[in-house]
């Protein structure tokens, strides 16, 4: 016991508190950004986020008309649910509004992603040539150094954000940054999240779900690490109508595919908690539709 107390005494003498991490409430609120909505260009999504304001003596729910500014949102689902399409729609829409968007592509080389972005713009009725240089692509799919080394990726992103005045960052996908080393998922996502906050980015992280995961949970490859660290998660799912029961519930025919969308938590604002139908149009645009059950 005496030896333990002696060790603790020595430790107390060696360790100094980090006062740079200590704030009073008023000091912290003075540094807090204003919460407002960032329109996404994804039909049906923006009114699903809200804040509560005091009007007279009553509290009223007010739509944010977009995802919360400065939030880091996780977009997860199995393959072919529309995650990349949503990320590209968001990128094209913000760029068409005159904003600079950094797009970190981890899965496909930049030239292929650029062609896909142009198709998305055409489907949205936008002239890609007018704003294509507002999108700054970081090709981590082709650069092993960037994909395998988080400090190099963050240094490249910092250069792009600073020199191109970037406000929005999309990473498709964060899963590709910890492939074959999922025990590192939490550390990788935490560093990316802290970086986005430091640079006041509104960010979308695309992440893959494993086929064994429950469809509408926030779990992604790497476990719950991704959803636990970020500000909010949007879950995309698809389900085969393989029984009369499902056909009746979803009002579809046996053999159809139904796509679903749900917001699984958002710490920066209120949000709709219902499961909604999701549609991918023939031109490759994602729409969030009515909730199940109306």
Short structural description:
This protein has 9 helices and 14 strands. By secondary structure, the chain is α/β, with parallel strands linked by helices. The chain has one domain: Rossmann fold.
What does the model show?
By secondary structure, the protein is of the alpha/beta class. It has one domain: 3-Layer(aba) Sandwich (Rossmann fold), CATH 3.40.50.300. Helix content is 32%, strand content 26%. The chain contains 9 helices and 14 strands. The strands form 3 sheets. A 9-stranded mixed beta sheet has the order 7-6-8-9-5-10-11-13-14, with helices on both faces. A 3-stranded antiparallel beta sheet has the order 3-2-12, with no helix packed on it. Strands 1-4 form a two-stranded antiparallel ribbon. Helix 7 (185-198) links the parallel strand 8 and strand 9 (202-208). Helix 3 (83-96) crosses helix 4. The protein is globular, with a radius of gyration of 21 Å. It starts with a helix and ends with a strand. The mean pLDDT is 90. This is Circadian clock protein KaiC. One of its GO terms (molecular function) is ATP binding. It comes from Thermocrinis ruber. It holds the Pfam family ATPase. Residues 36-294 form the KaiC domain.
How would you summarize the topology of this molecule?
Blueprint: H1 2-14, H2 25-31, E1 37-38, E2 49-55, E3 58-63, E4 67-68, E5 72-77, H3 83-96, E6 101-105, H4 110-123, E7 135-139, H5 144-148, H6 150-164, E8 168-172, H7 185-198, E9 202-208, H8 225-229, E10 232-240, H9 244-250, E11 257-266, E12 270-271, E13 276-280, E14 286-291
């Amino acid at each position: 016991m005496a030896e333990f107390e002696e060790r603790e005494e020595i430790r107390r003498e060696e360790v100094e508190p980090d006062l740079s991490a200590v704030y009073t409430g008023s000091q912290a609120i003075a540094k807090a950004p204003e919460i407002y909505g960032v329109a996404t260009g994804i039909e049906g999504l923006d009114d699903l986020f809200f804040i509560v304001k005091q009007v007279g003596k009553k509290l009223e729910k007010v739509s944010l008309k977009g995802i919360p500014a400065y939030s880091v949102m996780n977009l997860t689902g199995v393959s072919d649910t529309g995650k990349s399409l949503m990320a590209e729609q968001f990128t094209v829409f913000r760029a068409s509004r005159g904003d600079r968007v950094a797009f970190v592509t981890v899965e496909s080389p930049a030239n292929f992603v650029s062609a896909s972005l142009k198709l998305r713009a055409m489907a949205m009725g936008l002239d890609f040539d007018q704003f294509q240089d507002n999108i700054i692509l970081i090709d981590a799919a082709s650069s092993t150094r960037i994909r395998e080394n988080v400090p190099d990726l963050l240094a490249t992103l910092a250069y792009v954000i600073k020199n191109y005045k970037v406000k929005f960052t999309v990473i498709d996908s964060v899963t590709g940054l910890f492939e074959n080393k999922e025990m590192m998922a939490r550390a990788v996502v935490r560093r990316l999240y802290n970086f986005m906050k430091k640079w006041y980015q509104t960010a979308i992280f695309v992440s893959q779900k494993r086929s064994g995961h429950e469809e509408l949970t926030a779990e992604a490859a790497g476990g719950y690490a991704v959803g636990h660290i970020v500000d909010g998660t949007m879950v995309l799912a698809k389900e085969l109508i393989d029984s009369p029961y499902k056909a009746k519930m979803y009002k579809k025919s046996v053999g159809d595919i139904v796509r679903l969308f749900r917001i699984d938590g958002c710490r920066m604002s209120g949000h709709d908690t219902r499961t909604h139908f999701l549609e991918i149009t023939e031109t490759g645009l994602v729409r969030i539709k009515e909730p199940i059950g109306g």
